[in-house]
């Protein structure tokens, strides 16, 4: 499935949540979607837990070594 289709489905889900459930439901769906995105990237191996736990200086040093 292309990223455009995934984005369209996510936009439609947010639209329905906002229309039928109000702004609170919109925020809930958006937050859960963001969490799902991060978990999905982690499961695919694109993210590592250490990426969230390192300090800013550690990230710079890591990029410089590549």
How would you characterize this protein structure?
The structure is a single chain. With 66 residues, this protein is mainly alpha-helical. 85% of the residues lie in helices and 0% in strands. The chain is built from three helices and no strands. The longest helix has 42 residues, at 3-44. The mean pLDDT is 79.
Describe this structure in a few short sentences.
With 66 residues, the chain is an all-alpha fold. It has helices spanning 3-44, 50-53, 56-65.
Entry keywords:
single chain; 66 residues; mainly alpha; 3 helices
Summarize the SSE layout with pairings.
Blueprint: H1 3-44, H2 50-53, H3 56-65
Spans where pLDDT lies below 50 across 5 or more residues: none
In terms of DSSP E residues, the strand content is: under 5%
**What is the radius of gyration?**
16 Å
Which bin fits the share of residues in helices? over 70%
3D shape: flat
């Amino acid at each position: 499935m292309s990223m455009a289709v995934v984005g369209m489905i996510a936009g439609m889900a947010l639209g329905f949540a906002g229309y039928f459930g109000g702004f609170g439901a919109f925020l809930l769906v958006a937050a859960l979607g963001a969490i799902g995105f991060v978990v999905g990237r982690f499961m695919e191996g694109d993210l590592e837990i250490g990426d969230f736990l390192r300090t800013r200086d550690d990230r710079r040093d890591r990029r410089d070594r590549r």
